[in-house]
Design brief:
Layout: E1 2-7, H1 14-26, E2 29-35, H2 46-57, E3 63-68, H3 72-79, E4 83-88, H4 91-107, E5 112-117, H5 127-135, H6 146-158
Parallel strand pairs: 1-2, 1-4, 2-3, 4-5
């Protein structure tokens, strides 16, 4: 059975990786899918985020990293996944995620969504928090892996203030 965990991962955080690790223990194969969203203005390019994900997910042999465009539910069907894994940090996440899960179930009833609550120590971490800390000269290493912290340092060193 293939499970898919999708996001923008701009950048990947320890919260994301916790969900990847837990999903990798629950499912024989996990695809970490980076969604291409032209409406967003990400800090890292698609290729940079794919490389960060490949680097940070390399420890799990049953995890594959990919990118997709279009509707997530159609990508899930195309790769033969049976489950979508979604992380929940707070109650407000649940309301939004449940709406999406219902829409996906309406479009493809054969595909299930599994919600994994974040671990308590990761519940407040978001990619935007990590970017904000790094952009202001802070140390994001409590919230993101070394490869991500190095990429953030390079990115912000190259960005004029």
């Amino acid at each position: 059975m293939i499970a898919l965990y999708a996001g923008s991962f701009d950048p990947p955080t320890y919260g994301h990786l916790d969900l990847v690790e837990r999903a990798s223990r629950l499912f024989p194969k996990v695809v970490v899918a980076l969604g291409r969203n032209s409406a967003k203005n990400p800090l890292f390019s698609i290729d940079e985020r794919l490389e960060l994900l490949r680097t940070t997910c390399s420890r799990w042999s049953n995890v594959e990293v990919a990118a997709f465009e279009g509707l997530l539910i159609e990508y899930v069907k195309r790769i033969g996944a049976r489950v979508i894994v979604r992380g929940l940090r707070a109650g407000t996440d649940f309301e939004y995620e449940l709406q999406i899960a219902h829409a996906n179930a309406d479009l493809r009833p054969e595909i299930d969504t599994v919600f994994l609550p974040t671990r308590t120590n990761y519940g407040f971490i978001s990619a935007s928090l990590v970017r904000e800390i790094a952009a202001n000269g802070g140390d994001p290493s409590r919230y993101a892996p070394p490869a991500v912290c190095a990429a953030l340092a390079r990115k912000y060193a190259a960005t004029p203030t």
